[in-house]
Amino acid sequence: MGAKARAAKALQARPGFASREDAVLWLGATLEGNSARENLVAVYEQELNNQLVGDADKLIDHSASIKRQLARSEFRVLPEEWPGWKPGEQELPGLLLAVVLLCLGAPLCFNLLKAMASLRPLPIINQDKAA
Q1: How many domains does the chain have?
Q2: Looking at the domain assignment, is residue 61 inside a domain?
Q3: In which band, very low, low, confident or very high, does the pLDDT at 41 lie, cut at 50, 70 and 90?
Q4: Which residue segment(s) compose the domain that 49 sits in?
Q5: What percent of the chain has pLDDT over 70?
Q6: Which phi and psi angles does 81 have, rounded to 5°?
Q7: Is residue 87 part of a domain?
Q8: What is the pLDDT of residues 77-129, one digit of tens each?
């Protein structure tokens, strides 16, 4: 009971939690070394599940958990810094020219590959004409 009272007192100073994991981590840090910590975490999880009545509430809780996990992983699609390469004044025109040529050549290559894939061997063509 002392652990629950201590957590309730510390919770008054805490503004709120963004996700379920934040609350569980906070409980773990607040009740560090207390034997009732696992029990209180289980009770919290059960109470939270009871409060989430509708499917929409459960989806919102799940999306907040996913958002928290992504933030914690620090995943970036593009890194903020590119180590080892800094474009210079002489490299930029060549890079732009390569991009333009690739854009112009892509339809040509696609059409060429399409034509090659549609080629059929000569004996099959002769059989089709005979039938």
Answers
A1: 1
A2: yes
A3: confident
A4: 2-73
A5: 81
A6: -125, 140
A7: no
A8: 777 776 777 777 888 888 889 999 888 888 888 888 888 887 766 666 667 66
What per-residue confidence (pLDDT) applies to 113?
84
Task: Calculate the alpha carbon distances from 73 to 24, 59, 66 in Å.
Answer: 17, 21, 11
Report the distance separating Cα 29 and Cα 104, nearest Å. Answer: 58
Task: Tell me if 60 is assigned to some domain.
Answer: yes
Could you tell me which of 53, 77, 66 has the C-alpha nearest to residue 20? 66
Q: What would the two tokens of residue 123 be?
A: 């004996």
| 117 within a domain of the structure (yes/no) | no
Residue at 35: amino acid letter: S
pTM: 0.40
CA angle 9-10-14, nearest 5°? 120
Stretch 52-73: mean pLDDT, rounded? 81
Rounded to the nearest 10 degrees, the angle between the axes of helix 55-73 and helix 20-30 is 60
Read off the tokens for 131. Answer: 């039938």
Q: How many CA atoms lie within 13 A of 55 on its CB side?
A: 0
